[in-house]
Amino acid sequence: MAETEIRCGTRAGSQRHRRLAEPVCDPCRLAWNAYMREWKATRNSEARIRRNAERRAKDELSRRYQREYARLVADYLKLVS
Questions:
Q1: Strand, helix or coil at 20?
Q2: Which of 27, 45, 76, 77 has a CA 20 to 30 Å removed from the CA of 13?
Q3: CA-CA distance, 65 to 37, in Å (whole number)?
Q4: Helices (H), 1-81
Q5: How confident is the model at residue 3 (pLDDT cuts 50, 70, 90)?
């Protein structure tokens, strides 16, 4: 995309202002802020879902393999002591 095709009021327009060390206009600032809000909301929800899945998997493994889990915990506690 040529420089002349990048329009204000878009994320690309905001990046162009920054690259050229220009003040970011209000439409570009609003577009960038909207993009970042959406990106952060998506990223946080995906991370939260992953953490919950990992926690549930660990809980299930500790129930299925109680002896091995207890031995591993004891081994790691020895390492930090």
A1: coil
A2: 45
A3: 42
A4: 11-19, 26-64, 66-80
A5: low
Give the type of residue at 4.
T
| pLDDT tens column, 20-74 | 999 999 999 999 999 999 888 877 788 888 888 999 999 999 999 999 989 998 9
- The domain spans of the chain are 3-80
Contact 6, 12 (CB under 8 A): yes
24 touches 32 (CB < 8 A): yes
* CA pair distance 78, 70, nearest whole angstrom: 12
Question: Which amino acid belongs to residue 7?
Answer: R
pTM of the model: 0.52
